[in-house]
Design goal:
Helix 2 packs parallel to helix 3 and helix 7 packs across helix 10. The radius of gyration is 17 Å and the shape is elongated. It has ten helices and six strands. It folds into two domains: 130 residues, Response regulator (Rossmann fold, 3-Layer(aba) Sandwich), CATH 3.40.50.2300; 72 residues, Arc Repressor Mutant, subunit A, CATH 1.10.10. With 215 residues, the protein is α/β, with parallel strands linked by helices. 37% of the residues are buried.
């Protein structure tokens, strides 16, 4: 796994590089700004990019914009975005652009090494990894015409774990229920959120987006 890190905090940037190299992962380049990150992507053709949301010069959305551009230049690039705190607009934007090989984690998750590495590998393997705290905050904010109100408490639990990127078996293990029960809950979620089967649509992520968009 070839990795590029884009992070303007030198301590976190080098700490991440040391952590990943200690796990025998190939950190091919690090960058302190969006321009340097894109140059590194062009030069090294990484498999995964770890990108801070807020980067120079304005420290607003440079990381998100650069990540989108990097995936345009290198289709299939896995991107794990790091943020100091929950930023609803960025999380929603990230999901809206497609869920495959994408993750959104709070920076504090890096200190929980096993969880961070699990998320990194999940994204690299083509999955989605959304920080549980991000999911919790987004799903508890009230919205007009909130279809989430149709869901039972257990269905909300399942939806939150779906948004984190967990599969049915992992959800069943976390909630101490059977795989069949999880499958039933997911069918109910899709039905209550008016998500009909459609080719090319990830209904798991669409269920979260339906709530976030308030439609």
């Amino acid at each position: 796994m070839r990795i590029v890190i884009a992070e303007d905090d030198p301590l976190l940037r080098e700490g991440l590089a040391l952590l990943l190299r200690a796990e025998d992962l190939d950190v091919v380049a690090t960058a302190s700004d969006a321009a340097g990150f894109l140059d590194a992507v062009d030069e090294h053709a990484p498999d995964v990019a770890i990108v801070d949301v807020r980067m120079p010069p304005t420290h607003t959305d440079e990381g998100i914009v650069a990540a989108v551009e990097a995936r345009r230049r290198r289709p299939g690039l896995a991107v794990l975005v790091l943020s100091a705190y929950v930023e609803q607009a960025f999380a929603t934007d990230l999901l809206a652009r497609g869920s495959a090989r994408l993750g959104y984690l709070l920076k504090e998750r890096v200190g929980r090494v096993e969880e961070f590495l699990t998320a990194l590998h999940r994204v690299a393997d083509g999955g989605t990894a959304i920080d549980p705290e991000v999911v919790a905050q987004l799903l508890t904010r009230s919205r007009p015409d909130n279809r989430l109100e149709r869901l039972s408490p257990r269905e909300r639990d399942v939806l939150a774990l779906m948004a984190e990127g967990l599969g049915n078996s992992a959800i069943a293990e976390r909630l101490f229920v059977t795989d069949g029960a999880v499958h039933k809950h997911i069918r109910n979620i899709f039905a209550k959120l008016d998500l009909a089967p459609a080719d090319g649509t990830d209904r798991r992520v669409a269920a979260v987006l339906r709530y976030l968009e308030g439609t």
